[in-house]
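To the wet lab folks,

You asked to see what we're planning to order before we commit. Fair enough. Below is the target structure as tokens, and below that is the sequence we designed to fit it. If anything looks off to you, flag it before the synthesis order goes out.
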């Protein structure tokens, strides 16, 4: 079983992999592939963000006191910006320059946010909870990701319990929409998963 830090970092690596796949598609001039990988990237970012807001940030507030509340509030604000970026992205056309610029701006924000989590937030939390508690939180985080929305909804509250309820109501609608959206093909995902085995973004070096 993974610890909470390991589970969060694994998600971060997936985001970076899907972004790389998008950039390669853009270099090839393959607009359809750009759209597929952007959809996969969006799916991962939104599930990850809401999973953190429901499971991880309350733990930071519970175990890290006032400092934990400050960190959690800061992280929620950054999530709101990314959700707004994703919401705007859905109105733009894949292949367009504005579309690409927004993705790059969003990913720059995410790198900063993710690095802060890996360098400061999660190590601080892991230091005050047991390894078993960390693994239990990781399992809860993974289960929650299966139930949350898959598209950016900046209007959804970013604190439980309101967020939990609204998120669960939005999730079925999103999944119906996803059935009609284009995601990476099976072979493309297999190749990406193989690359993921060798990825290890160094958050400290990235700063």
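Sequence we intend to order:
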């Amino acid at each position: 079983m993974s610890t909470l830090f390991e589970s969060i970092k694994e998600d971060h690596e997936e985001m970076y992999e899907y972004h790389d796949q998008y950039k390669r598609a853009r270099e090839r001039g393959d607009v359809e592939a750009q759209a597929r990988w952007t959809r996969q990237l969006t799916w991962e970012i939104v599930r990850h963000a809401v999973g953190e807001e429901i499971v991880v940030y309350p733990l930071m507030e519970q175990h890290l006191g006032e400092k934990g509340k400050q960190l959690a509030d800061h992280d929620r604000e950054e999530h709101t910006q990314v959700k707004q970026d994703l919401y705007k992205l859905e109105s733009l056309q894949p292949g367009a320059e504005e579309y690409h610029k927004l993705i790059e701006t969003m990913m720059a924000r995410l790198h900063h946010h993710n690095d802060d989590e890996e360098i400061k937030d999660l190590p601080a939390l892991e230091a005050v909870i047991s390894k078993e508690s960390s693994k239990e939180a990781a399992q809860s985080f993974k289960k929650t990701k299966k139930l949350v929305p898959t598209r950016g909804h900046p209007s959804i509250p970013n604190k439980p319990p309101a967020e939990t309820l609204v998120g669960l109501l939005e999730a079925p609608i999103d999944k119906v929409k996803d059935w009609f959206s284009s995601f990476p093909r099976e072979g493309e995902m297999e190749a990406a998963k193989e690359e993921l085995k060798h990825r290890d973004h160094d958050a400290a070096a990235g700063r």
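Structural context that might help your review: The chain has seven helices and no strands. Residues 12 and 114 are 7 Å apart (CA to CA).

Thanks,
Computational group
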